Amino acid sequence: MKKQLIAAVINNKDRISYINLNEDAQYLGWTHDFNIIFPDGVKMGLDLNKEEDLFLLFVLASAWSRTGQWENAAFFTTYLKTRKKYHRNQWLDDDFVKNEMAEKDKNAAWIVSECSGVVPRKKVCFRKDIYASVIVIAKNWNIIKEKLELAECLNDYSLFIDYLASLDGLGTGQKRMRIKIPLILRELRCQGIYPSIPGEFCCVPDERVKAASKELGIVLPTINSIDSLFKASAIIYQQFGELYDIPLFAYKDLQVFGAFKTDN
DNA sequence: TTTTCGGTCGTTCGTTGTAA
DNA sequence: TTACAACGAACGACCGAAAA
User: Fold this and answer.
1) A123 touches strand C (CB under 7 A)
2) How far is the CA of A134 from the C1' of C3 (A)?
3) Residue A206: nearest nucleotide (C-alpha to C1')
4) Which of A6, A78, A81, A166 has its CA 20 to 30 A from that of A118?
5) pLDDT, one tens digit for every residue, chain A (264 residues)
6) Where are the domains of chain A?
């Protein structure tokens, strides 16, 4: 069953936007290529060597750390990238943020109409509460970078994880970000920025992934702490290795395509 | 007919409480 | 301590009714 799922992922890499595999079926990361294409033909992606794109990675993770379809977070990040709204100073300016919030619906409609590649399943919406989170990232940006570098130096990523998980307001309201922290680590690992990040830290056990795990009989702990989060991540990594959580995330989409059938 | 409004439902989190 | 279920927050999606 697991082998069939992995085979389905590899065989359908060109049909599903977020399955970014190279010729050797090596996973390149979600942000390597969003498969969202700008009118000038340029493809949306993040180059995490660049500071502004690294900033957007955190924005993506925080935006994704909320209810709603993943396309919302992806298009929000795409919008910020194409309009060059990825400098921390912009987000420390109240008027800039107010203006962004006031025009969020217009901007969401605009970016979807401009781009091709990914067809959102539902109407794309920029949630009004993500703006406060971008401000939190901007305010703490220098420390975030320091913690990341320190973690790499000491080869102890729990320093970075614990810090990020302690920041109020990266989730909805004053809540913290948790479930998408492994996404940040995975992208940094996949793009070779910090290759020493253990793969066990890199799998996201979100609702889609948990539901697929359950159907496949992969038992994950209930996630209500950093500890249980990374326990779940490690189990997924054990199962799918360098494909991380992608097979589980893609499970339902592959079934819809008829690319993967369950026996029962 | 088209647009706006209002209420309900669904979702995906993080947190809290409880029992093993 | 650890594991798990239940809860509540914070939205958006959806749909039908009312207004324009």
Assistant:
1) yes
2) 34
3) B12
4) A6
5) 788 899 999 999 888 888 999 888 889 998 999 888 988 889 999 999 999 999 999 999 888 887 777 888 888 899 999 999 999 999 999 888 888 888 887 888 888 888 888 877 777 888 888 888 898 899 999 999 999 999 999 998 888 888 888 888 888 777 888 888 888 999 999 999 998 999 999 998 888 888 888 888 888 888 888 888 888 888 899 899 999 999 998 888 888 777 777 654
6) 2-257
Distance between the alpha carbon (CA) of A182 and the C1' atom of B18, Å = 29
Is the CB of A107 within 7 Å of strand B? no
Contacts of A15 (CB under 8 A, 6+ apart): A257, A259
Nucleotide nearest A209, from its CA to each C1': B12
A67 touches strand B (CB under 7 A): yes
